[in-house]
Fold these 2 entries.
Entry 1:
Amino acid sequence: NAGVTQTPKFRILKIGQSMTLQCTQDMNHNYMYWYRQDPGMGLKLIYYSVGAGITDKGEVPNGYNVSRSTTEDFPLRLELAAPSQTSVYFCASSTRPGAKETQYFGPGTRLLVL
Amino acid sequence: GIQVEQSPPDLILQEGANSTLRCNFSDSVNNLQWFHQNPWGQLINLFYIPSGTKQNGRLSATTVATERYSLLYISSSQTTDSGVYFCAVDNPTSGTYKYIFGTGTRLKVLA
């Protein structure tokens, strides 16, 4: 049981390039989330998904896209990378929210846009 | 949208000391969680506590939803408690499960 895994761990992009951040969970969780964390700040929700085929915007979705074709995978796509997207990106998953909701986080992807 | 404020922003303790971290929120909430981010960046869920009191070892948390605050208590602190503590909330206005995070309390425990 690996939990939530993210790849890559670190990436440098040039302005205007695109990339996909991968996220996989093996806990059969319905809910998955993408957050970004800027230095010294809390996390901000980019997108979330309540199940395969269903996604919705979070607090800061501009410049990103997601898809959820399977329960396990929730990739985050950056189109036309900008310096403002330099951040640490965390993927998380949780059981169907309720009295015992717990979010499990991946180790993060550190992205630098130059 | 809902505002989440945490205090104090920074805290330095000697090993063995106790501490209380506070999370204030500006509107009613559906869900509230506390997280610990260790010095290596890993995030761990500590409590799901939209109301009431929970305890887990040396940690406990209390949320008074009617007064819009939550407290995280750390007793007999250890150096491994160092890191940043975040609370996160959601409410019907921001969107259920669209968690809003506070800016955190940075804790350093000295040996």
Note: The interface with chain B takes residues 31, 33, 35, 40-45, 48, 50, 56, 58-59, 88, 90, 92, 97, 99-105, 107-108 of chain A (CB under 8 Å).
Entry 2:
Amino acid sequence: DQQVKQNSPSLSVQEGRISILNCDYTNSMFDYFLWYKKYPAEGPTFLISISSIKDKNEDGRFTVFLNKSAKHLSLHIVPSQPGDSAVYFCAANFGNEKLTFGTGTRLTIIP
Amino acid sequence: DAGVIQSPRHEVTEMGQEVTLRCKPISGHDYLFWYRQTMMRGLELLIYFNNNVPIDDSGMPEDRFSAKMPNASFSTLKIQPSEPRDSAVYFCASSLPEDYGYTFGSGTRLTVV
């Protein structure tokens, strides 16, 4: 049972435009959400997070939005740059130390 | 700090052989996690340790899989006997208490032929 779902395996975006990556979850107990970025042959690296008490968190070009009623979060990258090409994983947690990850979305930025 | 160190980076083995993956967490990190990445399931948690004690091994797929953490600076994930369906990238990660930003190693790509 996939509790964290990323329904788009891949996404292509023109350089300079906005990239929007989506994530849905089924467990209403999740109270903390994160995005990780992964380059080939490297481990995932933490990108940005959001607590369930917020609906938006911003860090430079990256913004995460949380819609608790829809059990949906999204990552916006503006403007998109070639170095943003990577696989992005959504992850969620509730109260303990165990993160549940999604299947990932491969983002390709087209120059 | 050198980060989380995993070895080997690549492992090719024949079906039925024993495979041992190794991980050195970041010094001072109390939590250690073993994840497996596949196309179908993404990153799935196999087992995690707190202060060298296994806390949750519900993600370990079968009895063929075992993990140990004999001390704070070393952990192993063993598969015996290995099968082709075990082929995947295995990641180790470590973190401080209540730190959701895990630090991952570079992974071990396992191929069982």
Note: Chain B is about 0% helix and 55% strand.
